[in-house]
RNA sequence: GCGCGGGUAGCCAAGUGGUCAACGGCGCAGCGCUUAGGACGCUGUCCCAUAGGGGUCCGCAGGUUCGAAUCCUGUCCCGCGCACCA
């Protein structure tokens, strides 16, 4: 029968669905259930804001392979899936669709093949989600043959799920892990509401920057200067303002402030009470003096066009000693008496301004900005090198600059270490304020300006020390695969601050005590693995019964509430049966948020024994060496790949091309080659199925025993690899590596022998079981043909120690070695310019080393690769002593050979009867080289022309 | 800047102290099989070599060791993540 993956895969899919093959439940008998150690595998639920591509296929196939492996090992395995729809991406996608945005339509039509008459179904968020769930993810997952328990699926917008999340957040609040506070958000001044990155036209990369407002004063009016370098306040020599821009004098809280007009709204949005009183041009302040709140010095305000009134307060302080920008600006101001005079400034006052250094740094002079400007040869503020010089000096000063003595308690410290403390100290005294601003311009899709607003929000207190400690404990107790990711969790835990966990709009669960807000996606997905264990049975319970007490009873037991709901206690048994999660498989970029949140929340809400047992990190996918991108159409859809190659090929490629945590690259050429290999495997397996061998195990030839021994090694290696989720190593060993052994076996032996047929059948059955997690369709089919049972229902193979035979393996590798040596000699002879008849020999003479040489090797195998010890042992033997130097040379050579080999291998080698091994292989060697093979022993039959050494027989090619 | 990963033959890629001129795949070449092609099998694919050999080699430069692709130091280059975005 030809390999027809479409046909056979369709059949198995139907069978699995009809049988409910992967629906997992605790054992009916409670006592049995208590004994079991079930396996619970999870993977982050997909976000159906678009279709599924081949990268997703791998994300879900890796856990599937592990799940299938554990099932064959006899575990009860639960592998569930659900759908994450929380937040704004789906809403945003629907809105772009409804607006008829070309790019969005193109992604839907061209990349994801959405039919025209289906598009209207996508115009509601859940309609949109449902389309991608059903037609893409679910279909793709079923086509791939994922062993998912489909009864448990849900979406994060379901009302019962919301009840669960409600319980979670009420519990967290009661435990003091939630806190109300202010938080900077992106806010569209046109739409008058917060916006997300997806809503932006420009400035997606913009970062929040926290400016310090240094409260300079002019009389009773505060003139707040915005700076990112508050520690330079003692170096301020003057200020700059845009003389032509609009500024306002306003009441801010209980004071009068002077700020740029655009700053008014920003300050209002950031929690300041601002009432503008009158608008003036910047010129109003030019030529005036303002007072430095730290030093008490009065400094002159100069006009400057480079000041951007759109940024922060529109008034900046000048620190010419440390800012190349300011230094150059000051030079230019000094040089332009005319302009100063226009503004009524006495040029002499400006001339008198000298840079005031406030920190020292190696490699620069007393005035670092001067050094930098002069070194770069900058003469004008328009010189592009100025920006570079500024950046470089800024960096150096930040990491190496030490504050001068006038900084008192802060003196001598490096800026990097002292800036925040210095700033905080002056905030407390009231000299400094604060204001948030973006690092670049941000524009909303509606065209409105986006600014930073401080908004009331609820935070998760990931900064609580005791919570961090609990999360660290969770990391310490779990298995991190690969192990080098462990540090990343700890690092993230240390670095994580309070996390705003609500948004103004989006799908998902409302904040229980304030319906205006919705819990954001990374915060409503931290313990939902627990929900899987009960999802299917929760449907029988009316939503209104799913209150706080219900879940308290479910998760904390009968004693946790006064009158526990019986149904909750039943579900509790299910939860306790499956929990904790054995492995969570996830992408490495989720360590810095989702996975660490997962640990935090488990550490807080559940007992130690319910904490995650392990996390396996998965690598990224490339497509033909490049990043996948659905907007560019640079994706492969699983459906298309499965149509083209079959699901087994897709699975095998995804699992075999790299370990789960390594990056992989989908290359059509390689995939096609995998398909080819599977087809060949199928064809050869059919041969074995079609020509059955003897029922009972016959007398086996050496080659058969060799192959079976290799098979045992393969079983050991594959099992070991699977235990560590090394799917590449495992599938490589079971498929390709063993294929090499088979190739040798086919070459080496007569496969029509009954013993060979029996052996090949044995080998096939074992390999089908080893490969079943990877290519379940094909292996099920063949294993059923072979034995009557699908491979997945057969137990995982175990190493049969009786079939392991190191001696045979070692002897066989000697045969390989002889073949290679003969080929090497032939090659060398063929290199000759003239024809050498021996290159095509009629007779090959293989001479085995004399017995005394074998004895010397036996001594080495016994004692080890120690020249001195071996020599003194060997010299005890008078016969050997007689040979003197020859023995010494031989020992040296053999010790070289033995060094680095395991003792067990040396013992196996010592046990080999070389002559007998070559004699057994003589027919084979004769066929290989089309020559007569003569095996003889040195000193016994004839003396060879060349010296033989144990495991390196003398080989002589002879032509008639 | 902080954290992680990586640089191996034309390409992909295995290899963490000796069994390494370095697994395997792709590509290329020769031979066999075949009407032909494909598939399959065998052989070769850094340089030199008329007997299984020698030389050079694993980003670069040093070092440790009897011995290094593998360990250490320095250096260059590349990829990924760094938050309120799922």
TrEMBL record:
* Gene Ontology molecular function, alphabetical: aminoacyl-tRNA deacylase activity; ATP binding; leucine-tRNA ligase activity
Q: Where in the cell is it found?
A: Cytoplasm
InterPro entries reported for this sequence: aa-tRNA-synth_I_CS, aa-tRNA-synth_Ia, Leu-tRNA-lgase_arc, Leu-tRNA-synth_Ia_arc/euk, M/V/L/I-tRNA-synth_anticd-bd, Methionyl/Leucyl_tRNA_Synth, Rossmann-like_a/b/a_fold, tRNAsynth_Ia_anticodon-bd
Residue ranges of domain Methionyl/Valyl/Leucyl/Isoleucyl-tRNA synthetase anticodon-binding in the record: 704-827
Q: Where is this motif: 'KMSKS' region?
A: 627-631
Which GO CC annotations does the UniProt entry carry? cytoplasm
Going by the record, the broad EC class of this enzyme is ligase
Q: Where is the Methionyl/Leucyl tRNA synthetase domain?
A: 573-676
**Where is the short sequence motif 'HIGH' region located?**
46-56
Q: Name one GO biological process term.
A: leucyl-tRNA aminoacylation
Q: Which UniProt keywords apply?
A: Aminoacyl-tRNA synthetase, ATP-binding, Coiled coil, Cytoplasm, Ligase, Nucleotide-binding, Protein biosynthesis
Where would I find the Aminoacyl-tRNA synthetase class Ia domain in this sequence?
13-513
Record's protein name:
Leucine--tRNA ligase
Organism, scientific name: Halobellus clavatus
